[in-house]
Amino acid sequence: MKALFTLLSLGLFVGFLFIWFGLFNISAKDKHWDITTELLKLVRERSIEVRAENIQVPDLSNPEMIANGAKNFDAMCSQCHLAPGMEPTELNLGLYPQPPVFYNEKHEDHGAANTFWVIANGLKMTGMPAWGDFHTDEQLWEMVAFINQINGMSESEYQALVGEGGHTHKPGFGHDDHDGHGEEASSTSHESLHTEESSNTSHTDMHNDGHGDHAH
What we know:
The protein is mainly alpha-helical. It has two domains: 41-167, Cytochrome c-like domain (Cytochrome Bc1 Complex, Chain D, domain 2); 169-216. Helix content is 59%, strand content 0%. It contains ten helices and no strands. It has helices at 2-20, 34-52, 63-76, 78-81, 90-94, 112-121, 137-150, 155-162, 175-179, 183-211. Helix 2 (34-52) crosses helix 6 and helix 6 (112-121) packs across helix 7. The longest helix is centred in the C-terminal third of the chain and has 29 residues, at 183-211. It is elongated, with a radius of gyration of 22 Å.
């Protein structure tokens, strides 16, 4: 018993030194060992499955539901998970673990209930936000319905679903709470964001023209 206590104490002391001297590289550029990746994957999947097992999945085949989900996906998810016709973004390439690209990757079907839980609750230490506080269950299910359809989708099909956009929130949150315009205000904000991004891109291009290799 004394020997076991000594070993545990020694292990805790070594662990403390490992942390204190910063030996673990927290950088997203320093990838996990394969065994660590598999262990984390197992922990993640079992955690999600246990918490999602009693979630009741609604009918996700309604075309209007899928179209609404496409609009929110475009506003909330495409910068990380990309969308048909999009080039890789800095967020998609820079995050670790790298977010899956649903439209062109053959990925495991973890089930609609699991997908709903992840969208609602997010995932620690991955960059995946928890959207549940800002959107209704119906809005989250709409995104699940869309994600179920996106694999192999063409750019034209995607753009037809997104249309002019229309990012929605839970009533009383965000733009709905301030100006009463609901989806119209959210859509305008999203369009303004794209306008601002275009402006920033133009500014970067001008910066590149004037300063050569200084810009990335």
